[in-house]
């Protein structure tokens, strides 16, 4: 949630459905609400996400955050920047997301962990740079990537991620995916 813009923090406080009055309070309440929603979705399954579409991505975000934010499931209509990273301008979100979804649809099977790691690093980086939502992009994208991996016969063990290494890899992935690829190589396993 650490965006360099007061308007973003103010917007999140004003849009939250949890009654939070400060950003810190919102972060704490949001974590709890998210884990509850994610737990329910784990039981329900993610079949609705495929075939991957703009609508299914919006539905995933809505299901994850509908108890937290009034904008759950809606793409952002403002420019966003985090630290030195400027994300996709809002008017290009649909176009870029459709291009990426079509790329995934055209993918052949991934023969090994190395190939899967390279492909997932690419899709994760691109989805992150599109950054379609005002909040909750990282968590939504992690689920999309995990489910993409499953569809290609791999399990992405996010419980094995070292948080700091992962965040460092994500920070530089827009110009160098090597660290992210290594992280995927170490956390991906062929499904049984």
Number of individual domains: 1
Identify the CATH class.
Mainly Alpha
Strand order of the largest sheet: 1-2
**What is the arithmetic mean of pLDDT?**
94
Give the structural class.
mainly alpha
- Might you state the CATH topology name? Fic-like fold
Number of helices: 8
* Oligomeric state of shown chains: single chain
Query: Which term fits the overall shape?
Result: globular
What characterizes the major β-sheet?
2 strands, antiparallel
**Share in helix:** 55-70%
The overall strand count is 4
Q: Radius of gyration from the CA trace?
A: 16 Å
Which architecture does the CATH hierarchy give at level 2?
Answer: Orthogonal Bundle
Which spans have pLDDT < 50 for at least 5 consecutive residues?
none
Order of helices and strands: HHHEEHHHEHHE
Report the end-to-end length measured between terminal Cα atoms.
36 Å
- CATH homologous superfamily descriptor: Fido-like domain
Hey, roughly how much beta strand do the residues contain?
5-15%
Keywords: ATP-binding, Nucleotide-binding, Nucleotidyltransferase, Transferase
Protein name: protein adenylyltransferase
Organism: Macrococcus carouselicus
Catalytic activity: L-tyrosyl-[protein] + ATP = O-(5'-adenylyl)-L-tyrosyl-[protein] + diphosphate; L-threonyl-[protein] + ATP = 3-O-(5'-adenylyl)-L-threonyl-[protein] + diphosphate
